[in-house]
Amino acid sequence: MTTITLVGAGGKMGCRLTDNFLRTRYRLHYLEVSPKGLENLHQRGVATSDAETAIPESDVVILAVPDVAIGAVARDVVPRMKPGALLMTLDPAAPLDNQLPRREDIGCVIAHPCHPGVFNWEPTETAFRDFYGGISAKQGIVVALMWGGEGYYDLGLEVATAMYAPVSRAHRVTLEQMAMLEPALVETLAQTCMEVVKEGHDRLVAAGVPKEAVRDFVLGHLRIQIAVLFGEVNGTFSDAAYKISKRAKPILFREGWQRIFELDDIREQVRDITHK
Length: 276
Fold this sequence. Notes:
By secondary structure, the chain is α/β, with parallel strands linked by helices. The protein has two domains: 3-173, 3-Layer(aba) Sandwich (Rossmann fold); 180-274. The chain has helices at residues 12-21, 35-43, 51-57, 67-77, 93-96, 125-128, 150-163, 175-206, 211-229, 239-252, 263-274, and strands at residues 3-7, 27-31, 60-63, 86-89, 107-113, 139-147, 167-172. It has a seven-stranded mixed beta sheet with strand order 2-1-3-4-5-6-7, sandwiched between helices. Helix 7 links the parallel strand 6 (139-147) and strand 7. The radius of gyration is 21 Å and the shape is globular. The two termini are 39 Å apart. The mean pLDDT is 97.
């Protein structure tokens, strides 16, 4: 039976993984130090383990801790892992920023959820409203082998599929490719754009346009715009929409904004994430 230690088990992400691991047959050690995290685990009927015992006997150690803390935690945890064990992280930022001490006698895998897609069909209202995934809505995952042999990747994929379940499909990527996806694509670009759209929404509400009308109008248009752009429907925008978009792009975006996908810029992005 595979033994897993989940570090940060009572945190935001840790609780989601804990809930899923409770439905598996793995042997689990849960580690947590914050009062809030300990309370979260207590509410789930989960007892914490002793790190001095748990880490050296574990086949897999998962770091579910904030990016700004992962370096210090990894420097404490990794030396205590047994040879042949697997280290897992949930995000590419710290690994890309060289925050993980490397040991050649262990493996390292990074696994991150895609979250349920905009057009993800679910049979129940509960599953449909599982926006983060990991409860009842299907989601894809991306998995990268940072170092070690293929056996480490296979074990990491197995564990990732369990902790992010239900998983629809898994995509193997490199560490650098995962960092292009996050933070560059979905945080630096997509989240920023959506924050600006929300600011536009709020501006119209403040100007007196009925809030419900603004919400229905923008969310409805976002859905069809995404459907058209990502090929979910065989359709196009109106001539006027293409014309106004062409006018707006140089106003809204600086020339050369695409550099956010270049590795040097991505390294700067992750440094902002991993340092206080």
